[in-house]
Specification:
Radius of gyration of chain B: 16 Å
Structural class of chain B: alpha+beta
Structural class of chain A: alpha+beta
Number of domains of chain B: 2
Largest sheet of chain A: 7 strands, mixed
Number of domains of chain A: 3
Order of helices and strands of chain B: EEHEEEHHHH
Strand order of the largest sheet of chain A: 3-5-1-12-9-10-11
Number of helices of chain A: 19
Strand content of chain B: 15-25%
Oligomer: heterodimer
Largest sheet of chain B: 5 strands, mixed
CATH superfamily of the largest domain in chain B: Beta-grasp domain
CATH topology of the largest domain in chain B: Ubiquitin-like (UB roll)
Number of helices of chain B: 5
CATH class of the largest domain in chain A: Alpha Beta
CATH architecture of the largest domain in chain A: 2-Layer Sandwich
Number of strands of chain A: 29
Helix content of chain A: 25-40%
């Protein structure tokens, strides 16, 4: 029986459904409670911190021996800045932790924290990142000469000629406002001190446990072997939980200092204020188009607001350099000029959020395609047909190599399912009645499962990418897989079990996956960047494959045949074309207990494998059909279609879940969510009453279709699929809104397209609408 | 430290005698004093619904209710939903229809749906979607949650008739 390709209900679920999940807060009730005192202002000099006499309180002065968090890119255009775990002299954003309180329970800790008085000499904060770029702008960091902390530039030789030859030059300024990944579980950590060994176990809601261990050990100057990091059940991450945050360093410091267990469980206000944000970007594009709609060249100036600090380990280059490298997207053109800058401001740090730059760059390219199509009198699908990548491998102007994909086919499949002719008829009929329907397309590539070469190319000092997997079969024939990936809701354990089942011929229920414990798993890079199925999956397949080879050798010895004649299936090792068979459990027992019989084999069944691929591109086309209410500016999504190519689907149910959840975040990005600061850097959206994730009422049914391009770049034949939904949806929705409002000549270039922004555009177009 | 009150709670058919500060939320009492950590806290200001439990059969945000207010009332949490090893139809439907990913919001959605279906077993599909829009989920995009509750409602109606 093959397990790959089956919609197997997840092995993770029964515990989670019965309230038996174990998140960090569930383990923390016996520890002392930690509360952080946070800066009420965005910028200023710390004059004094007055602390009440009867509490356990520490400030930056107590932690002067702790090194700042200072991630490095080895590029001449990168300026490294340090983030103190608790600042001594100045604050750099509203919400920055400046003191820490320890008490018997969280309510008491908050009581004490309220009595800490922080005297700050307030300075004018730099909030607007376009203003921060001005030559005379005050530097956010005194040790950095300008507010540009990273800059990528390139220009192909033929770019000027492409613009000279252009029949049409399309210029646009795109703005994506700041967002929060907003996982349902906030951050949190429990640092437990073991008096016997002096070791600390940090249980934390994180995506990269090994990286956290290294980062904390480096920062505190402690032996890495004295720290164990556990990622238990994690209530969503979406990138926000990748980074090394000061709070976790402080927790481990406290546990060692006080020789007791301490826990910090973040609340929602802190999470929106002080964890990490993303997508705060302004892109200016010029596209040179030939008369037939072919894109000849693209010239882009890209600015990303990276906030007050650089996130560890991926650095503040993560958004600007992703945008730099991947702006060309799914389109085949040769001439490209780009300047992409990361700009620091007195705001919360930028860190990866599902999609990383690609929602904004896809929005930019797809808006440009629609605008160009209108100007040139070409259909929106047709201009894409003329520009999409059709031959593989394709080399982009920035040197990225795209493996086999189905850019054109995915669009055609989505268009067929959408039945555009029928939609256009209905659209026309409804316009007569003053109702405005629109359809929008978004075609994009999603670079997934990339190993060390991709990160090394960015000049990262810490180069993530590979995964190591240890696969052991015990004497009863059950399997334990130890992985460095760290899933947090993706169902990876189920998918990996299916993959390994097919290698070893046993049921998925007999495969236990151990993740998220640095004492129990090989060093790895956690779960992010749509990498785990491709990379941890690849290493799992390779490791299990080695165990399978050994099983076959043992079976062949015991049944006096050649290993080539053995097939592992349904719990048995069978000899081809014969009735001879042995249970896999019996072979496993022999491997351990009769090892003297197998000459040339080491005892037992334990194998490791490493996988470090170059990367593989998924691709998709999204089609949104919306109705815009021109009185309220409200947008209703009528249909949303996704034609996705993620290669071979290990568990199609889980893949569809990833796409649907990603699209929901994309819809949020398109219409609802926005982190807003006032001019002084005070956060105005610090609760879920102000920052608005969509509910079931706003998310329509997502119709999903699959292509299956098999790529040689992935040993499992699976491509990554974690981010595509979020990448493609904003462009499709805003293109649909603009199609709906085309009778008024309205073009929107701002995310999210809130009712206020849509009404403002309508008013500017002279359409009567509520003020 | 504020004075503590002795309170007796009836949770999932079991009696808990706890000594709690009057300011302590029901969610904190359930999690820390009763050890029932299946009830999760996502926002602590009554928006996300992860902490939803049933109090006298009605869905309640346990972060917005004090523990002392639960004295004499009947509380049901996600731990009390299954019948021993047999999953509740809602739990079974969430499992079969991939109605959860990270699982953090799941207890709140299960209890919200359980309470709503107890009050009105014949909710229309639109009513179900409307009720479920009380809570937030960040992973699933809701589609499979809505589907699971619809299918569970059907199953529960069929069992009642049988």
């Amino acid at each position: 029986m093959n397990w790959i390709g089956r919609r197997l209900p997840r092995l993770e679920d029964p515990a989670l459904l019965k309230g038996g999940g174990s998140y960090v807060a569930d383990r923390a009730s016996k520890a002392a409670a930690v509360c952080f005192v946070r800066s009420p202002v965005a910028r200023g000099t710390i004059v004094d911190i007055e602390i009440p006499s009867d509490g356990i309180i520490f400030t930056g002065r107590d932690l002067v021996d702790v090194k700042p968090i200072r991630p490095i890119l080895h590029r001449p255009d990168y300026v490294a800045i340090g983030q103190p775990v608790l600042p001594v002299d100045r604050v750099s954003f509203c919400g920055q932790a400046i003191a820490v309180v320890v008490a018997d329970d969280p309510a008491l800790a908050e009581d004490v924290a309220e009595q800490v008085f922080v005297d700050i000499d307030v300075a004018d904060a730099i909030i607007d990142f376009e203003a921060a770029l001005a030559l005379d702008a005050t530097p956010v960091h005194p040790d950095a000469a300008s507010n540009v902390l990273v800059e990528g530039r390139m220009r192909t030789q033929g770019l000027d000629k492409a613009f000279a030859d252009a029949a049409e030059i399309v210029t646009l300024d795109v703005r994506s406002h700041r967002q929060s990944a907003a996982p349902m579980e906030n951050r949190g950590g429990l640092a437990e001190y073991d008096a016997a060994s002096g070791r600390v176990t940090l249980t934390a809601s994180v995506q990269m446990p090994h990286m956290l261990r290294t980062g904390i050990a480096d920062t505190l100057g402690m032996p890495e072997s004295d720290l164990r990091v556990i990622a238990p059940d994690v209530g969503g991450g979406f990138g926000q939980k990748m980074s090394l945050f000061p709070e976790y360093v402080v927790l481990v410091w406290l546990a060692r200092k006080l020789k007791r267990s301490v826990a910090w469980i973040e609340d929602r206000r802190e999470n929106l204020l002080a964890s990490a944000h993303g997508r705060d970007q302004a892109f200016s594009l010029r596209g040179a188009f030939a008369g037939d709609g072919r894109l000849l060249g693209l010239d882009a100036d890209l600015r990303s607001n990276i906030g007050a600090f650089s996130c560890y380990p991926v650095t503040c280059g993560v958004e600007p350099l992703m945008a730099f490298a991947e702006l060309p997207g799914p389109y085949d053109f040769a001439e490209y000029g780009v300047r992409s800058r990361g700009v620091t401001t007195n705001t919360c740090m930028m860190a990866p959020y599902r999609g990383v730059s690609r929602p904004t760059l896809t929005f930019s390219m797809e808006r440009m395609m629609d605008v160009a199509a209108k100007r040139l009198g070409i259909d929106a699908a047709e201009i894409r047909r003329r520009n999409l990548i059709k031959t593989f491998p394709h080399r982009s102007p920035t040197g990225l190599v795209y493996d086999e994909g189905s850019y054109l086919q995915a669009m055609e499949v989505a268009l067929d399912a959408a039945d555009l002719p029928a939609f256009r008829e209905r659209q026309a009929a409804m316009r007569e009645r003053g109702q405005y329907l629109g359809v929008g397309l978004s075609v994009f590539s999603e670079r997934t499962g990339y190993g060390t070469p991709a990160y090394a190319a960015r000049g990262m000092e810490i180069v993530p990418g590979y995964e190591i997997v240890d696969c052991s079969m015990d004497p009863s024939g059950d399997v334990v897989l130890r992985i460095g990936s760290s899933p947090h809701g993706q169902g990876l354990k189920t998918s990996l079990a299916q993959l390994v089942s097919d290698e070893l011929g046993i049921e998925p229920q007999r495969i236990r996956i151990i993740s998220g414990d640095t004492d129990a798993t090989p060093y790895g890079w956690g779960t992010f960047a749509s990498r785990s199925m491709v990379i941890a999956g690849g290493a799992s397949k390779l490791a299990a494959g080695k165990v399978a080879v050994k099983l076959k050798t043992i079976a062949a010895t015991l049944m006096e045949t050649s290993p080539d004649n053995i097939e592992l299936k349904d719990g048995w090792a069978r000899v081809s074309h014969s009735n001879q068979a042995m249970e896999i459990g019996a072979l496993a027992r022999a491997a351990y207990h009769q090892s003297h019989r197998f000459k040339g084999l080491l005892p037992g069944l334990h194998e490791s494998a490493v996988y470090d691929p170059g990367g593989t591109f998924s691709n998709a086309c999204h089609v949104a059909m919306v109705e815009v209410d021109i009185e309220t500016g409200g947008v209703r999504i009528e249909r949303f279609l996704v034609a996705e190519d993620a290669g071979v689907l290990i568990n199609p149910m889980i893949v569809d879940g990833q796409i649907t959840g990603g699209v929901a975040q994309g819809i949020a990005n398109a219409l609802f969510e926005e982190i807003v600061y006032d001019d002084t850097g005070n956060l105005l959206t610090a609760s879920f009453a102000d920052y608005l994730p969509p509910t079931a009422a706003e998310i329509p049914e997502i119709e999903i279709m699959h292509m299956e391009t098999v790529s040689p770049e992935s040993v499992t034949k699976a491509k990554g699929v974690g981010e595509g939904g979020a990448i493609g949806a904003p462009a499709a929705i805003v293109n649909a809104i603009c199609d709906a409002l085309s009778p008024f000549g309205i073009e929107l270039f701002e995310l999210p397209a809130t009712p206020q922004r849509i009404r403002e555009a309508l008013r500017r177009a002279g359409v009567a609408t509520y003020a | 430290m504020p004075d503590k009150r002795d309170v007796t709670l009836a949770v999932n058919g079991k009696t808990y005698a706890v000594s709690i500060e009057p300011r302590r939320s029901l969610a904190d009492v359930l999690r820390d004093d009763c050890g029932l950590t299946g009830t999760h806290l996502g926002c602590e200001h009554g928006v996300c619904g992860a902490c939803t439990v049933l109090v006298n059969d009605k869905p309640v945000r346990s972060c917005l209710m004090f523990g002392v207010q639960a004295e004499g009332k009947v509380v049901r949490t996600v731990e009390g939903l299954a019948d021993g090893d047999t999953l509740h139809p809602l739990q079974q439907a969430f499992w079969e229809n991939h109605g959860l990913q990270c699982g953090f919001c799941t207890p709140g959605f299960l209890m919200l749906a359980a309470g709503a279906l107890q009050e009105n077993p014949d909710m229309s599909d639109d009513d179900i979607k409307d009720v479920l829009s009380s809570n937030l989920c960040r992973c699933t995009g809701y589609q499979n949650i809505v589907k699971a509750v619809r299918l569970a409602a059907r199953e529960m109606r069929a069992r009642t008739r049988a």
